[in-house]
Specification:
- This protein is α+β, with helices and mostly antiparallel strands.
- It contains 3 helices and 3 strands, in the order E-E-H-H-H-E.
- The protein has a 3-stranded antiparallel β-sheet.
- A hairpin with a 4-residue loop joins strand 1 and strand 2.
- The protein starts with a strand and ends with a strand.
- The relative contact order is 0.28.
Length: 73
């Protein structure tokens, strides 16, 4: 498992959060953060379409929010 910092901001609340997440990839870190801290779950079809981290960023942008991930060494 790798450690990632996931940054998330909702444009409705204008509050930036940064959270340490342990996951196997950037994509997994973002999905884990969204599920555990924002109660946002994607259905199976959306998960299959979101093959990389860029698609998760696009999904969040379409929900009026932004997400970013940084891998810690």
């Amino acid at each position: 498992m790798n450690k990632y910092i996931v940054a998330y901001i909702s444009l409705f609340e204008n509050v930036l959060t940064q959270t340490l997440v342990e996951a196997t990839s950037e994509r997994a870190a973002m999905l884990k953060y969204l599920e555990e801290h924002q109660d946002i779950n994607f259905d199976e079809q959306e998960l299959l379409a979101a093959e990389g981290a860029d698609q998760i960023v696009d999904y969040c942008f379409n929900m009026d929010s932004h997400i970013s991930v940084y891998k810690l060494d």
